[in-house]
Amino acid sequence: MNPSDIPPDAAIHETLGDPRLQTAIYTATQRLIDHRKKAVAADALPAYQDLRALAHRIKRHTIEHLDYYLELVESQVAARGGKVVFCEDANEVADFVLNLAKEKGERLIVKSKSMTTEEVHLNDRLESHQLEAVETDLGEYLLQLAHQRPYHIVAPALHMTRYDVADVLTKNLGVEREVEPEKQTKIARATLREKFLEAGIGITGANFVVAGSGAVVVVENEGNARLSSSAPRIHIAIAGIEKLIPSAKDLAVFLKLLGRSATGQPLTVYTSFLSGPRRENEPDGPKEFYLVLLDGGRTKLLADPGKRESLFCIRCGACLNHCPVYRKIGGHNYPWVYSGPIGAIITPQFHGIGKDPWLPFASSLCGACAEVCPVKIDIPKVLLKLRFEVTASGAKGPGERKAFSLWAAIMARPKLFSLFGAIAAHFAPRPKNGAWIRKLSWPMNLAPLAAWLSQRDLPPPAAQSFRSQWKSRKAAR
Ligand code: SF4
Questions:
Q1: Among 59, 342, 347, 383, which residue has the most ligand 1 atoms within 8 Å of its CB, making it the best to mutate?
Q2: How far apart are CA 203 and CA 219, in angstroms?
Q3: SS3 category, 6
């Protein structure tokens, strides 16, 4: 069975019941949590909270004046000999790349990690037209070989152990099984080096696009983005329109926050500023440069000031690492490329609230995501707004609505609440071995409740209720 054919509930249960996978997710996210904690501690970055507030203000300003900055970046890129291509949706992005490759007679494309191209399934479209698109980020390359999508925004193969990697390399490249990460890297490098030299087009994402100068900024640790953007004859950078920031001065704020929030690094190993094609007397660089800016549902969010801040995200992944739900269910159980808390708020907004109405509810609302977000997106607030919209749309079904109306009616009447409490306590089962609630069978329309209860147990009721204990204590004083 194809993994995407497994119903979401069953797939989540599979992940929860896989101890190897649970350990891999927990270990990797904990390492990222520990590194971030040290990097943003008061003695390492005293201005951390001020930088977060400033980053939030810069993003708010840019998003509120997006029309101005989009025009500015278009003129700046053109002034440096490049071209900006605005695309409404995934098809327009794929059409642009396909037509350009056809026009220039190129068949091999190297790609460095880009969530925006994952968003539009660019590789599938290219391959369906007999173009070869090769991922060059090590994690992405492994996922491409294994036919999987990213598990995490910054660590795409976070769920793979080195033994999984050994299996993928042996099966797909026919090499001897190698479990040492350094040797595995060498194997991948040897294959990819040839591709860099042969490719006619290099595609990268963009962490930031500086509107004032037209520069695309790419941060990475492996050097593959730098090679993808400089070795081939043509460089295409593909980014969502929300990646714009006004100026290089603003960039300094984000560079201080991104690496630290993502991996705990003060700066990533490579920070490339790519602005236009190679100029006269420059020894290297592409001959042609295109910046593709994708809307893909983003302008829909601009209309709502409350949810607009979802576009401030700089894709650091910190909210995923700290989310108790992501850390249990992992990345592949989210329906789209963006997982964790940021996925739970942008997926329903980009795709429509009716498509995956359960997503805004995939959160305990503990608030850890908002606490660690470097641009201070109030994710729980957006989740609550989306929950309200899901409920108002009727997607939760009449059963749940009636149950909560009944609950509200009882809670609003203290005497009735007390009576129900006494009745429930009297009739509640008290089995010696507990766990009775997990053994009940539930009707199909209560499947979400059954799934929730299957992981819990109801303790036997106390001999005396809290209210009567309170009363007797008061009386005894
Ligand atoms: S929402 Fe915030 S914490 Fe999560 S990925 Fe985006 S910037 Fe990082």
A1: 342
A2: 14
A3: coil
Q: How many CB atoms lie within 10 A of CB 54?
A: 18
96, burial (CB in 10 Å: exposed 0-12, middle 13-18, buried 19+):
middle
Q: Which residues approach ligand 1 with their CB closer than 6 A?
A: 153, 261, 313-319, 342, 372-375, 377
Among residues 380, 112, 115, 155, which one has the least CA distance to residue 242?
115
For ligand 1, the distance from its centroid to the CA atom of residue 474, given in whole angstroms, is 49
Measured distance CA(470)–CA(102) in Å, rounded: 79
Burial class of residue 150, CB neighbours in 10 A (0-12, 13-18, 19+): buried
CA 81 to chain centre: 33
For atom 3 of ligand 1, the residue with the nearest CA is 373
Query: In a structure prediction context, what are the per-residue pLDDT tens digits for the chain, which is 477 residues long?
Result: 444 445 567 888 899 999 999 999 999 999 999 999 999 999 999 999 999 999 999 999 999 999 999 999 999 999 999 999 999 999 999 999 999 999 999 999 999 978 999 888 899 999 999 999 999 999 999 999 999 999 999 999 999 999 999 999 999 999 999 999 999 999 999 999 999 999 999 999 999 999 999 999 999 999 999 999 999 999 999 999 999 999 999 999 999 999 999 999 999 999 999 989 999 888 889 999 999 999 999 998 988 888 899 999 999 999 999 999 999 999 999 999 999 999 999 999 999 888 888 899 999 999 999 999 999 999 999 999 999 999 888 877 788 788 888 999 999 998 999 888 888 888 877 766 666 777 777 766 666 677 777 777 777 778 888 888 888 998 888
Question: Using only C-alpha atoms, what is the Rg of the chain?
Answer: 26
Ligand 1 centre distance from Cα of residue 31 (Å): 17
d(CA 232, CA 191): 16
Topology (CATH) of 60-299: Rossmann fold (3.40.50)
Cα distances from 143 to residues 229, 341, 456, in angstroms, run 21, 22, 35
**CA 318 – ligand 1 centroid, Å:** 6
Ligand 1, pocket-test mutation among 29, 207, 261, 371, most atoms within 8 A of CB: 261
8 Å CB contact between 63 and 302 = yes
Query: What six digits make up the tokens of 388?
Result: 């309200």
Q: Coil, strand or helix: which one is 401?
A: helix
Structural domain boundaries of the chain? 60-299, 428-476
Supply the residue whose CA is at minimum distance from atom 2 of ligand 1. 373
Measured CA to CA, the distance from residue 21 to residue 239 in angstroms comes to 31
As a 3-state breakdown, the chain gives helix, strand, coil percent values, each rounded to 5, of: 55, 10, 35
